């Protein structure tokens, strides 16, 4: 079915940039980037990550925006339109929308944890408490299924109420409110970090490259994260690109979004590590960095009561603007391909995400003994399927399609126009050779590693 009604577009360039940056800037920047940097030895990892963003992430982001804007369809419909029929490439759309579906279900549970922590911070659960008590709050939370489900539900309802408003009145409007707030909060926390006693150590940790700590595994981690952090392979950028005006310079738009995402990840690291060092804690504490170490830090710092509230609000806003892009990517499919109305599509998909998220929320309590893939819990299994398989598979298909099989060379050239003369050839080289090769390598090693 082709979609001939006039399609809603972003009202302004800034609106698009903020919405797309809102999708990109999420838990990946503020939770994951700092902790994987911590685990992989700091500066050298940051360097490798920047190279992965530039050579693989950015070209694929531009390819996704291009596909969306050119076809003005959801991620599945886009490939029908490009090929003029249902072909093998439809699988790229399906894998992307499937990834968005799976990721939203568990992303929302983790986002629910951040809401719980905003609440904890507000009622002063951290300030002045001994370390064991503060750290214990996290184990307490993940042991509590109903509590997680309640926050997960609240979070999904927030997403639903934004996405139901549509492109301009929902997503764009809220991105224009939440993103500046997010930026202001981050700036405060960044300045706080830079003024703290650990500033020097934090800076050294983030920027002094120690190549001895860099393993081949770190390189893969950096590549995989480049994908996740830019919201690639999950239909989000194709869908957001489909609302982008033809007047926009796509190269500049993609570059801005990637720069914002990277800048915010670096700022998050510089907000977090200095204060971690200031109270003499370990920077390499893994996934618990945000939910265990940071609350302990704030329980000991002067002004920690307020800082904790600001920090977890920041995290919640980041998660919300990302989750709405995951929901919108699926909603667009039902609207464009199935002819559903927006309210029905949004309600249905939000409900489904809620239901599928429930076993994730129960993964470390009632369903603790249920292993889906190998020894993995439900949560770890769905994360594995989405992050290790669906995202790279979608990315690989998209890079191959755009680099080798999209017949409209002139179109591609035109879509990439706007940069300097070298931008099209550079992009084309990266999307043809570098990106598919890099993604194929990640996919191979991830499969090897998980033995699935
Ligand atoms: N890019 C987001 C992050 O860094 C994650 C995300 C992926 C959000 C896909 C939306 C879509 O956290
Ligand atoms: Na990100």
From TrEMBL:
PROSITE patterns: NA_NEUROTRAN_SYMP_1, NA_NEUROTRAN_SYMP_3. It is a multi-pass membrane protein. InterPro entries: Na/ntran_symport (IPR000175), SNS_sf (IPR037272), YocR/YhdH-like (IPR047218). Keywords: Membrane, Symport, Transmembrane, Transmembrane helix, Transport. Signal peptide: none annotated. It comes from the Bacteria. SUPFAM superfamilies: SNF-like (SSF161070). CDD domains: SLC6sbd_Tyt1-Like. One of its GO terms (molecular function) is symporter activity. The chain crosses the membrane at residues 12-31, 43-67, 88-109, 149-165, 177-195, 222-245, 257-281, 305-327, 348-367, 387-406, 426-445. It is found in: Membrane. Pfam families: SNF. GO terms for cellular component: membrane. Belongs to the sodium:neurotransmitter symporter (SNF) (TC 2.A.22) family. This is Transporter.
